Amino acid sequence: MSELPAGAIYDRGYRHYDGPREGRSRRMQAIVTAGIRRCLGLKRNWKTKVVPFALLVGAFGPVFAFIGIRLLVGESVGQFLGYGRYLGIVALVLLLFAATAGPELLCPDRRQHVLALVFTRPVTRADYLAAKLAALLLVIGLVALVPLLVLFVGNTLTAPRAATYLREHAGDLGRILFAGGVLTVFYATVSLAVASLTERRSLATAGLLGTFLASSVVANIIFFTATSFPGRRWLTFLSLQGLPARFVDWVFGEAAPPGSLAAEAGFTGPAYLAALAVLTALALALLAWRISRLEP
Amino acid sequence: MSQPSTGPVVELRHFSKWYGDVVAVADLSFELGPGVTGLLGPNGAGKTTTLKAITGLLHPSQGEALLFGRAISGDPMLYRAIGVVPDGDRLYPRLTVHSYVRLHAELHGLPKPGLAADRAIAEVGMEALAGRRLKGLSKGERQRTKVAGAIVHQPSLLVLDEPMTGMDPGQRARFIELIRLIADAGVTVLVSSHILGEVERLASQILVLVGGRLAASGDFHAIRDLMDDQPRTVVVRAGNARALAPGLIALPTTVAVEVDGDAIQARTRSVEAFATELPRLARAQGITLREIRTTDESLEQVFRYLVGRR
Amino acid sequence: MKGAPVVFRFSLGQLLAGRRLLVTGLLTTFPLVVPALLAAGSGRDPAGFTLDLFRALVLPVLLPVVALTFSTTTLGAEVRDGTVVNLMLKPIPRPGLLAAKYLAGVLATLVVLLPALAAAHLLAARGLGSTTLLAGMLAATTVGTLTYCALGVLLSLLFARALLVGLAYALLWEGALVSVAPSASSMSVRGYAEGVLASILTRSGLDFPARLGPLSATLLALVVTLLALVLAVRRLERMDFR
Hints:
The complex is a heterotrimer of chains A (296), B (310) and C (242). By secondary structure, chain A is an all-alpha fold. Chain A has helices spanning 24-40, 46-73, 83-111, 115-120, 125-144, 146-158, 162-168, 170-195, 201-225, 242-251, 261-265, 269-292. The longest helix of chain A has 29 residues, at 83-111. The relative contact order of chain A is 0.11. The model of chain A has no long low-confidence stretch (mean pLDDT 80). In chain B, 35% of the residues lie in helices and 28% in strands. Chain B has 10 helices and 14 strands. In chain B, helix 2 packs across helix 3 (113-123), helix 3 (113-123) crosses helix 4 (139-151) and helix 8 crosses helix 9. The longest helix of chain B is centred in the middle third of the chain and has 16 residues, at 169-184. The mean pLDDT of chain B is 86. In chain C, 79% of the residues lie in helices and 0% in strands. Chain C has 242 residues and is mainly α. Chain A binds chain C through residues 47, 51, 92, 96, 100, 200-203, 205-207, 209-211, 213-215, 217-218, 220-222, 225-229, and chain C through 27, 31, 34-35, 38-39, 41-44, 49, 52-53, 56-57, 60-62, 65, 68-69, 72-73, 77, 160-164, 167-168, 171-172.
């Protein structure tokens, strides 16, 4: 039998962590990643995936369907509805996505009293807000930008001469990024701002949907009823769902439907862009104010 | 409120509950009578599941849970005789203590809900805080409020799920007093806990759940006696202790003997054999015995044994 | 059955407590009253205007949003928070308990919607206006409320995100049906409400085409409401509470 080794006592008790600590960007990245997972229901059970995935199917489905048809049938199908038209159709999906994802990011933290935990770490409120906003931008960008980019790529690859197509339609790419980007920022900020007002996700969602839809209806009704109302053309800015729609129309060179409120009002595209910017700024201000008042 | 039938207050017959592949409780059968019974077990043993089945918040996957001889599901009128203090918060934050307890009284259809609420609040010692909102109360105060709500209709069975979590020792002592008073008034009490010291002071009967199964039931002293493969410690103080030692260690059931001055501490597998032999030895040698007692009657011993056995 | 009225009173209080009544009231009244005020001065036929307002704003947006919000919260929030055991551990028959919660949601919705609707009508007409129209709108709103709330209560016992599911149904499904398959109006609560309104208006000379006749509309609404409530009671009796 060999000699027994000399005894040793190992201090395996609680230890301080002395290793490297990652910095602020890593902290924020953690919040962003967690936020994205929560919105898309990743790493959770199937029930939380239903809503986001159904919406994603609604956003991406037509794109893939069209590319598939074009591959099969060829060039003769002609250009799909056009990127602008597509955004118009997908607008409701985008609204629903924003109305569910925004509250999902902010409300549970407050409802479950997790904020105390978050703010014991050196995360400032500004960082918290920026990280949440980044997560939502990425998620909404997924719906506002990616399908169109995929469509563009699909069009390019199925064109008879891809390089020529690319050169001719480079402007389209720019327009996609511009329109999609503006829409993403607008919906993300407004969604988070409303979400910061309440602890219950469903109330924020209902509020967002109700307000967007009701405002459009009310604007239309007042416009077509109060024909003697001075300055009624300004009512077009009351329609929250109409602002992004008209902006997108302008970017892609489409005209508003004839006889509609927007057509009658006669404002040019940049005016709608300005309206979007103003609303985004207001939403951001509201959001910053609410977050600064958050009690952990 | 009088009990509708004679017979056990609570009875579980082959009660099992599973969630998909996970079995929370398996084939549990027991009967509960008057007095305070403690339901013990480590976390995850199935205590809350069992209590929820007894109070009708869960439906058994198999078997039945009977109160006063009747199944609780489908018979909400049984709730007239039962008071429940469930786990978790479950309080309406904006109500005051009085309005919360009064709500319970009204839900029971009591004729004078305000008075009943006042009386229940006094019983739990919360009169001074009766007007305060539930949101601002400490944990112990919230728990006592829940108890007030549970006894406002003077039930004959009171079920409490880990009522003392989050309480400091002073609050615990007062709470145990309160439960004792309630039990002394004739109410059957079932308390679940994983804190042995409390159950020891409170309950005369215990039920031990381990891994979803009933590991032991009854009086815990009796259970201890049944655990005969665990040596018991006996302390003897005698005139000439050291002279007794050789005779004691000669017994086949004795495991160890320690001598310290006039005290012997012995560990034996059979207290009976020890107790029979000791007086014979003392008499034969003319030694006076001054004190004999067993020292490890604690519930913790029982518990560790039962849990460790698997 | 002594406990059920207590549940009703308590739940109504919870739904309309604090600022909730004010906020919901304002959010509902504002988009109805402001257009009505503007319409009053415009010379447009007030009955036609109010009807348009009702058809475009109340039926598709305000009614489902308010009704579903209240009805999914009244029971659903308590189940999620765990406070529902305070009600379940009482000698209250389950159908009575559910009915109390349901009626609390219905009443809260009507309290918020009906006055706003009436105010809009009166303001637009600068007086009593067409009482048939007013009666028709109130009746249609009530029928819609009864049905939406029954669906909301049932959904809240089935899904964690019941409000979302309900809104998706009301906004997407019912909205799409209107444009795509008019014959499927029998599967739309909005269709039932429209049917009720149309039947009341037939004698008044106002033009309001609806795809369901009065009998089928009320019958279907009744059937759907009762079915939803019965299923909800069954679910309440059989579910496990966390």
